[in-house]
Design a protein that fits this description.
Elements: H1 2-9, H2 28-37, H3 46-59, H4 64-70, H5 78-83, H6 89-107
Length: 133
């Protein structure tokens, strides 16, 4: 998938570069407008997908610090951040592969008791965490 995206977006450092400045990420408004054009107006946002990923990854027991790093969140403890520069690339790579597998399984109508409902585009539109009902 990433190789396909590279053919579309060019050889940029970012997977989704900004239109005006390829050194900056695509804007939240661009993502929001794309979701609106796909029929998700008022139902999903770019940050909604990030929240969805965070919730499901935490529910599946992944390390909080690894999830926060993957979402590019700044550490809460500035002193710890000043000393710890670890990136945890191996466990994060496994976590993201598991996330991709989860999305693929959900697209096919699976996902077990934690996820139901898939959009016609194969992306999760809504996820019901059944045990929180």
């Amino acid at each position: 998938m990433l190789e396909l995206l590279r053919t579309i977006s060019g050889n940029h450092a970012l997977v989704f570069p900004g239109e005006q400045d390829s050194g900056k990420p695509m804007s939240n408004m661009t993502i929001l407008k794309a979701l609106e054009r796909m029929g998700y107006k008022g139902r999903m946002t770019g940050h909604g997908f990030r929240g969805l990923a965070s919730t499901i990854l935490h529910e599946q027991g992944y390390n909080h610090e690894h999830i926060e790093l993957q979402l590019a969140h700044a550490p809460r403890n500035a002193v710890s951040a000043a000393y710890n520069h670890a990136q945890y690339l191996e466990p994060r790579a496994k976590m993201m592969q598991d996330w991709a597998d989860f999305l693929e399984q959900t697209q096919r109508g699976g996902g077990g008791e934690r996820a139901t409902a898939v959009s016609r585009f194969g992306s999760i539109a809504r996820v019901h965490l059944l045990r929180h009902r």
